[in-house]
From TrEMBL:
Pfam families: MDMPI_N. Transmembrane segments: none annotated. This is Mycothiol-dependent maleylpyruvate isomerase metal-binding domain-containing protein. InterPro entries: CHP03086, DinB/YfiT-like, Maleyloyr_isom, MDMPI_metal-binding. It comes from Actinoallomurus vinaceus. Residues 10-132 form the Mycothiol-dependent maleylpyruvate isomerase metal-binding domain.
C-alpha cells in the first residue's frame, strides 16, 4: 500500500480495499449501479483509478473500458485492486496542494488539485459503498469522508449526469452526510440487495 499526502484519497482507497473483500458467491450480486454486478463495479473502480493516474503521469491507463467492464470476477481481484490503488496514490503524491490544473480523465479536463484529488476519492468511496451494500455489509463511508466529498460531487456531477451519475434524488430532512452525498449522486442510501 502506498501512502499519499492526500488523506481524503487515502481514506477512500481504504474504504474500497475493505469493501473489495468479496466472497466468491457475491461477485454476481446486483448492485446500486443497476446494470452492473459486484465484479463489474470493482473492475470499473480499478479502471477509474488507473485512468486518474494515467491522466497525471501519461502512462498506465485502464486495461479495459471502465464503462464496459467484464461481468466475471477477476481471478486476482486483490492484486488487481492493489495495483490500481498504488498507481493512483503514487500519481497523486506528485500533485501539490496549490496546483491549479491537475490533468483528469473527466470531460471537465484539468482541475484544481483539491477537486482533482476529490474526484478520484469520490469515485473510490462511492464504489466502495456500492460493493459493501451489494454484499450485505454496512456502509464504509464515514460522516467525515462524506462531508468532504459532497462539495466535490456538487462541483463535478452535473455535466456527468446520465453518463456517470444518475439524476439526483430528493433529499430527506433526516439525511446524514452520507445519505445526502448518495442521494445527490442518484443513489438510494437505503438500497438493499
Amino acid at each position: 500500500m502506498t501512502a499519499t499526502s492526500w488523506s481524503l484519497l487515502e481514506q477512500a482507497h481504504n474504504a474500497l480495499r475493505a469493501s473489495a473483500e468479496v466472497a466468491d458467491a457475491d461477485w454476481a450480486a446486483k448492485t446500486p449501479c443497476e446494470q452492473w454486478n459486484v465484479a463489474q463495479v470493482l473492475r470499473h473502480a480499478v479502471g477509474d483509478q488507473r485512468a486518474y493516474a494515467a491522466a497525471i503521469t501519461g502512462a498506465g491507463g485502464p486495461e479495459e473500458n471502465p464503462f464496459d467492464p467484464a461481468i466475471d470476477a477477476p481471478a486476482d481481484s486483490k492484486d488487481l485492486l492493489e495495483a490500481a490503488l498504488d498507481v493512483s496514490a503514487r500519481a497523486f503524491a506528485t500533485v501539490t496542494p496549490d496546483a491549479q490544473a491537475v490533468p483528469t480523465p473527466l470531460p471537465q479536463g484539468p482541475l484544481p488539485a483539491e477537486i482533482a484529488v476529490g474526484a478520484a476519492a469520490l469515485d473510490a468511496a462511492v464504489h466502495a459503498w456500492d460493493i459493501a451494500v451489494a454484499t450485505g455489509r454496512p456502509s464504509p463511508l464515514s460522516a467525515e469522508v462524506s462531508e468532504r466529498l459532497l462539495p466535490v460531487a456538487k462541483a463535478l456531477a452535473e455535466p456527468l449526469r446520465g453518463f456517470a451519475y444518475a439524476p439526483a434524488l430528493d433529499p430527506h430532512p433526516a439525511d446524514d452526510a452520507t445519505a445526502a452525498l448518495l442521494r445527490y449522486l442518484g443513489r438510494d442510501p437505503e438500497w438493499t440487495r
